[in-house]
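To close the chapter, one final illustration. This time we ask the reader to focus less on the individual chains and more on the assembly as a whole: which components sit near each other, and how the overall shape emerges from the parts.
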Amino acid sequence: MKFATAIIIGAGQSGLAMSRHLTARSIDHVVFERGEVANSWLTERWDSLRLLTPNWQTRLPNHAYAGDDPHGFMTMAEVAGFLQRYARLSQAPIMSGTRVIRATQQDQGYEVLTTRGVWRCRKLVIASGACNIASIPSHSAGLPAKITSLTPLQYRNPGLLPDGGAMIVGASASGIQLARELQAAGRRVLLSVGDHVRMPRTYRGRDILWWMDAIGAMNMRYDAIDDIQRARHLPSLQLVGTPDHVTVDLNSLRKASVELVGRLVGLRDGKAQFSGSLANFCALADLKMNRLLASIDDWVTASGLDQHVPAPERFEPTMLEPETKLSLDLVSAGIGTVIWATGFRPDYSWLDVPVLDRKGRIRHDGGIVAAPGMYVMGLPFMRQRKSSFIDGAGDDAADLAAHLSQNLANAA
Ligand SMILES: Cc1cc2nc3c(=O)[nH]c(=O)nc-3n(C[C@H](O)[C@H](O)[C@H](O)COP(=O)(O)OP(=O)(O)OC[C@H]3O[C@@H](n4cnc5c(N)ncnc54)[C@H](O)[C@@H]3O)c2cc1C
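The assembled structure is written out below.
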């Protein structure tokens, strides 16, 4: 049996940022990675995907984008290269090809069973990702056998789908990107839309994420939010990273002939049933977007910048067909594939410590888990709104490494 003071599970940005901070504090540790560095970016993303966060926002402790296109968006190969360079520069002690099979609590810490032996540690950092498993609604079981069912973790490109149209369930970041790609590839596309967060790509001459960063929206702390559980479960931003910085929203998709339908509420005898709430969801998303734009305008005025940036603008409300379908026989409509872009969740099947709530979510306070010496990284709105983004890993790792280090000192 081997020993390290701390064990980090996962070598994505979360695990690497934490490793960097533990090294800076001279805390010996090891990072277990079942694949290789940046495994999720390399193996669980579709071919055309680019980051929706601009290059300048791709920054980690002591490592930031340094190319000549700060406003561009990285491909997956570029993200992986960025993280691999970071791992090399920070000399992270990574054991790749090492899967954690079980972690159990012991007197003074944790025992971690891996595919390459058993380890013990005093501190355990779970950086194994927030998006390991696609969340699929239970009525997916009613899908006719002849229709292919995919998740965004499995989808690669339009050419690999069976013939026919596609129904995409969910209109957040993944859903709108896949709808756009499949429509452009000549497929009939139905997009089932529930709650969503509408965003323009650019506003008053800047990227919307530049504004959100500037007004402090990305740095908002979890303990300053009234209903943090709700905030943690909001859908992802309707944003796409493309070389031409286009806004992809329901209006642009509808104009490109994507058929918008309401939230999928049932699937029986091959028939999909959609809720009639589409117009309400769209009106609410428009309202919330306008609220964000108004807070940006207020910030510009308060900072005395009105003369230096273009005037405020407001975007066309989401336009819908007068009548949207409430049901559809998928087979007779020629739908060959359904893609469940209905969100993701972590996989804690290896974690044999009673820290999960009845919904299987890890109980934590800003990443400090409800078990001695255990930490988690990379969850939505974990310590700040940006916690689940690349840009959020640095701050969270700094805070949690400080807590972990203090904890070790107290026990000494
Ligand atoms: C489709 C998609 C697009 C995204 N786009 C952006 C974006 O544009 N900008 C942005 O900032 N964020 C984006 N994100 C969010 C976030 O940055 C990514 O999810 C990112 O991968 C999270 O990094 P992480 O290190 O927390 O987890 P991961 O990158 O998932 O890393 C976890 C690592 O743990 C390993 N692991 C898991 N279980 C085990 C085990 N049992 N044993 C050993 N190793 C294990 C995995 O192999 C993986 O390498 C996106 C997410 C998704 C799903």
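The longest strand covers residues 117-126. Residues 9-15, 32-35, 39-41, 45, 51-53, 99-100, 127-129, 131, 152, 174, 344, 350, 377-378, 388-391 surround flavin-adenine dinucleotide (CB under 6 Å). With these observations in hand, you are ready for the problems at the end of the chapter.
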